[in-house]
Amino acid sequence: MLLALGFTFVPTVVHAMHIMEGMLPPLWCVFWYAVSLPFFMYGLYRLKKISENSNSKNTKLMFALCGAFVFVLSSLKLPSVTGSSSHPTGVGLGTVMFGPGVLVIMGVIVLLFQALLLAHGGLTTLGANAFSMTIVGPIIGFLVLILCKKMNVNKKVAIFLCAFFADLSTYVTTAFQLAVVFPDPNKGILGAAVKFMGIYAVTQVPLALAEGFLTVIVYNLIVSNGLWKEGSTILNEEY
Amino acid sequence: MKNTKQNVILLVIVVCLVVFPLVFIKGGEFGGSDDQGTAQIKKNDPSYRVWAHPLWTPPSGEIETLIFTLQGSFGTGVIAYIIGFARGKKKNSKEE
């Protein structure tokens, strides 16, 4: 039923990775800024702590690499099976190596770049966009990692799943953020959310798959070139 | 499985994922997602007025592509530099 609903709306593809400038009422903009701010502060704290207490010498280099990965992936507007294009988020790699938190900083830099120079996303909607992409995404990815570890899932598979779900959850969050503000005229908030999500499920899945594979590729390159020890992902670190 | 072999296989999968819709989806316009998101919002709430506009918009699609490319190549440059550097260092230390 859900799926059927999703397919019905496929022709009107909607998958707003970024909520555009001015597309959220002022109060909601303030709300999402307020929600995201503590995470941003925590991100700064984590960034400082990790670079100070790190016994692995490549930490700063790896910060740069994870940030660059977000930069690259969010510039790739890939075609999807629904006949439109969208882009991955790239937050999975950083989540695997540093856990959630630091991704907020990297993500906000990318979002600012796109808002200021590309008119994609916006300054008023920055809080909302940061929340979906740099907060919810990495946290979900992190939870997936923990779950995989508990279930003894193969490490590469775990990294793939982390990136996959981090990407997908970003879009699901955006769907809800929009649905709350712009409910469906007939079916209300849930109706709008189902509508957005039905579309997301179809649109973003192949892109999230691609992001998952790319994340594993870069991770392989990092490990096999001795930049990062296999053991020292976030899961081996004491919290 | 060796990492290199694994990477090649994964890369092929990624390329297939990207190429598949281009080849098999007929009538797809592959438009940007943001504009379509905006359109959907207007559908749900026709009375909503956009109250803020981007400070600066790329003057044309060409310029927009340029900046997107810059974003991608900047990131790729950093990644390639770091991995290339590490690779050279590893090779060097092996030879010594």
TrEMBL record, chain B:
Localization per record: Cell membrane
InterPro entries: CbiN
Record field: transmembrane: 7-25, 66-86
A Pfam family: CbiN
Membrane topology, record value: Multi-pass membrane protein
Pathway annotation: Cofactor biosynthesis; adenosylcobalamin biosynthesis
Predominant place of localization: membrane
This protein's record includes keyword Ligase: no
Gene Ontology molecular-function annotations: cobalt ion transmembrane transporter activity
The keyword Ligase is assigned to this record: no
Any GO BP: cobalamin biosynthetic process
Function statement: Part of the energy-coupling factor (ECF) transporter complex CbiMNOQ involved in cobalt import.
Subunit annotation: Forms an energy-coupling factor (ECF) transporter complex composed of an ATP-binding protein (A component, CbiO), a transmembrane protein (T component, CbiQ) and 2 possible substrate-capture proteins (S components, CbiM and CbiN) of unknown stoichimetry.
UniProt protein name: Cobalt transport protein CbiN
Originating organism: Pediococcus claussenii (strain ATCC BAA-344 / DSM 14800 / JCM 18046 / KCTC 3811 / LMG 21948 / P06)
Name of the gene encoding the protein in the UniProt record: cbiN
